[in-house]
What does this fold into?
Amino acid sequence: MDFDRRGLLKVGGLTLLGFLVKPGWQVFSKDEPAEPSPGAETLARRRWGMGVHLRKCWKDEGCTDCIDACHRVHNVPDLGTLKEEIKWIWRTPYEEVFPEHEFEVTEEDYQRKPVMVLCNQCDNPPCVKFCPTRATWRREDGIVMMDFHRCIGCRYCMAGCPYGSRSFNWRDPRPFIKKVNLDFPTRTRGVVEKCNFCEERLAQGLIPACVEACKEKALIFGDLKDPRSEIREALKLKTLYQRMPELGTKPKVYYIL
Amino acid sequence: MIPVFQYSNIPSASNTMMLNKQTKIIGEDKVLFDHIWKTGKGFYITISILGALVLWGLYAYVTQYRTGLGVTGLSRQIFWGVYITDFVFFIGISHAGTFISAVLRVLKAEWRRPISRLSELTTVFILMFGVGSVLIDLGRPDRMLYAIRYAHFTSPLLWDVCSITTYLTVSSLSLYLALIPDIAMLRDLGGRREWFYRILSLGWRGTEEEHRRLDKAIGFVSVLVIPVMITVHTVVSFVFAMTIQPLWHSAVFGPYFVVGAIFSGVASVIVVMAILRKAYHLESYIKPIHFNNIGVFLMAMTLLWFYFTFAEYITVAYGNEPVHMAIFWSKISGKFAPLFWLHFTLCFVIPLPILAIRKYRTIRGTVIASISIVLGMWLERFVIIVPTLTRQRMPVAGAFYVPTWVEWSILAGCISLFILLYALFTKVFPIVPVWEVREGREKAAASVAARIESYMPETGPSRD
Amino acid sequence: MYDGKKIVPGLILFLGLVTYPLWHNLASGKLNYVPKLKLPADKKECVEPKEVIRLNHKTLLEEWRNSVVRNAGKTYVAYNKKTYTMSLNRTCMNCHKDKTEFCDQCHNYAGVTNKCWDCHVYPKQLEEKQS
It folds into this structure.
């Protein structure tokens, strides 16, 4: 090759490409985390699940204790409009949660009764697939985690979730939080949030706030891998429902009728 | 402005030589250079209006940046709206340039010569606004680079980032390569901007060898950009098709979006062509035959678009699944029916007779059809994105989406900025590729005749 | 110099404007300003030695953040083999109680903005809010 201007451009181009090999390799081969996380093995020994005992819950249909507890503990703001509301756990009429249970000929009296609905912490979560920055991921113990530091607010996870479990901060939430809980951060505007199975409480050995707050003990929580756990006992020999199981998301919230 | 024309009343040896050289370069194509040097009142008025709109759009965005996305009409239920529509729409329009510049070049259609640069330019500039629309839609735009730093490649948004970056790079390269001989021409004309053109022309001398190399390079890039073009809008469609939302999760979305993109892109090129032709008096270069040829192709695309839309909706309706039908009916006869039928009218009912009947396929006719198509295609994107979100898979009552002034202002600002940048480009470079037109004038007839000769069956005594 | 009568005064004015921050601080005595940090009364050592933590606290907090949020690892072993919980509020702010009297003193002086407090609530802030 002649060392004229074309030759210089060729050599320069190849050198530049060469400089990109190392960082390019790092970007494309990186998998989070680089080493397995220190708690991975411990975490993987459990698989958290929740049961919602509907008839116990319906003993007091106007009750919102679990919602109040969750939203208080996690500094969930009350924005007051359907447009911008943020909710981690909420009530929906039965016929909207399980539309497939409504038949022309049955006269069920519980179609309008409230059912507690939250993030199903799926074992095969679509939201995790769609996040471009891995701000949401499935932890080894089954909880679908949110990293509010990394979320860029594209809302693709909200498009992926078939259950509508996720909320977005359309504005700064701080002015709308009645009483700030010091032990848990608030979020900024522009990030997505959802129920996290109280993973920060689980780390301290406490049960989720909603489960603790329920007077009727309608919410059952525990380790699905442990055959003697409270939840496994509660789920035995009962008719169990899940939301849209045919989608293959493998939700871990069970409804006991 | 060209300086020597002013000094031409002072006769001198060097001035005459300069004048002769310039006359030789400009030749009979003075009108192709006029728009660079002559700026009329109309241009300044247009720039002022566009500038005002851009500033207004900027103000709207600053409002959004300071308060949050709550200033839009978006909600917990319908969280993607005008911005994502803009994104898909702008990326769709970007397919214009590739089709007219690259595909027609590969197919050796000589009539593409005057219009290849203006369509390529549409592609390059509008792609930036496609990307910009997504960034405007982010909740935390200060973290936009996290998508690259912490890239998670199972996400179709990342595939988008890769394919659109590739497309932008290759299209820019294609635009620049085809510009080089014209930049060299402007350099040789001298004047105050000569240093600028000299740097960009990369020492082009116009030799046979250089032309051969340039032809090879442009040919390579043209062939390369065609699969990239198909990939780009397929990947954009995958953002929706990969979810399990009803009426989004459809295998036909890939080709449907590509066809829609080429459709809206070519229509927008017709509009651009008509405006430039009128504003810069390019009537002898951009002729009715260009509009006619593209009009025929646009008619084919109208029918193809109708085919995909029909296939999509008939399969949904025939399947009759409740989750899908709820949204289907909201589009056909429910909340979104006015927008749905409006878009269908604009995309099919109005353009087809205009483009199909030769009598109406005039310049004015094709432009009317094209404007209708461009508006209809924006609505088509909207009608694909929003109705699914009103319900997703659950019976949710009362969700509706009304875009606010912020979203409309930002859309207006983006379009204005695009036109503004386009207009400024025409002040620096010729919008009709002079060298390609001249190459056509000199060599096209002969090369086409030779090519046709090669197709003809062999005549003469048979070889035994 | 051609046009010297315009250039020289213009140049002096330009240099004056450009070096304004320097001579203004010198004149008003701000140049001698040193941030006054209120150090915790009872604790004598931080999780890392003073010089190290002064330089590296940003990186340290980012490592802690990734470890706690993403890797479920909450325990930090310091240089002196002591273990601490990786937490901004429970460890750092446990000693440096008020961010306005500690963190902000240097951050404001150096013009550093951080977004930690957009989400994390420090004790004094909560008191102010509730009152």
Remarks:
- Residues 85 and 317 of chain B are 24 Å apart (CA to CA).
- The longest helix of chain B spans residues 208-241.
- Chains B and C do not touch (no CB pair under 8 Å).
- The radius of gyration of chain B is 25 Å.
